[in-house]
Amino acid sequence: MIVEEARRVIRTEAEALLAMMDRIDASFERAVELILESRGRVVVSGMGKSGLIGQKIASTMASTGTPAFFLHPAEGIHGDLGMIMTGDVVIAISNSGETEEVLRILPTIKRLGARLIAMSGNGASALARSSDVFLDVSVAEEACPLGLAPTASTTATLAMGDALAVALLVKRGFKAEDFAIFHPGGSLGKKLLLRVEDLMHTGEALPLVSEDTLMKDALFEITAKALGVTGVRSGDGALKGVITDGDLRRALEKGYDILSQRAAELMKLNPKRIKRQELAAAALQIMEHHSITSLFVFEDDTATAPCGIIHLHDILRAGIA
Q: What does the pLDDT average to over 121-149?
């Protein structure tokens, strides 16, 4: 019984969304054009459940390149209408189209010279008649068995808001890098914003020895720089190879007398490298693919001397995973 009821709710809401697809027409295109042509912001307003949906719509738009915020209509009639400016576009949400608090802010919206997009389930309502563009979010029935609680109607409104936000995103040429700018604290933002040069070790922290350095001194360099690796460079500063603490451990386990050897005798040639301008996420991908924990960093593809080193732990501490 419970499972069947849940399935009925989902089916009802899915059918409402599918039915709304056929109503995406020239009015939707005009709504997108109004917002793109606007020199102001998008102001979303609605009461109750519609207001909650409106907050999400405003948030989605703001994070995808369309400046937007939510205005509570009840607060609006007590002074917050001052937040609306000439050139703004107001999206007013009301399933009935007759919500008193929403209707009371309409004259001021018009007086301020803002344009009005109505999202409503009633095309004959006062809200729809007052709008510059009407977006029909009507549903055949609510998923609530009593037909009272906004369910299918709020889902339809949310979907219409998402459709607007995504259409605007596409028209603006909004890219993943732009999205990351508005989400610097999230993992996505870090993956798309943090570069190798932001995390790499440089200068005295860079573990390097020459080709003729004794391994006992190379071991000291690995220990002192605490990155589990040292680069081996030639006389002109070019990176020739690397030695890791794992290389040393495996050599000792085989009984080799390595401490009297030179770095050039134990180093691995052709170490993996990365440019400083690359994303830190790209460095992580290389490390995972080759099962290594560090990469020497170079200014560009032609450079032979490293300018830094980035370690797996640096990337993980930055929250990129």
A: 94
